[in-house]
Amino acid sequence: QVQLVESGGGLVQAGESLRLSCTASGSIVGSNAMGWFRQGTGEKRVQVAIMATDGSTSYADSAKGRFAISRDYAKNTVSLQMNSLRPEDTDIYYCYFLPLLGSKMYWGQGTQVTVSL
Q1: Which regions of the chain does DSSP assign to beta strands (E)?
Q2: What does the pLDDT look like over 1-16, one tens digit per residue?
């Protein structure tokens, strides 16, 4: 089993920044991809940013130019630096971990990000 522990959510005003972090621990057999998704009440979980083992990244259009994902491969940690936050960024953010292609995906418990005007 793999456990994901997230930190860094909170309440900020529009224009401010937050940094989310997530550390994977447990029976880790690989580290294919780590990243962040978001989900609103009654909505589907959607990708925010993902970074693969080779360093390639994928961002949601809403995150491009404002958010930056990074990984510490030795510590199995992924971080998301969120700048210029907007009220529409408000959601629960979930850490995502895919050990190997085709393997089980793991999710963190979620961390609330709230951006006020």
Answers
A1: 2-7, 10-13, 18-26, 33-39, 46-52, 57-59, 67-72, 77-82, 91-98, 106-107, 111-116
A2: 899 999 999 999 999 9
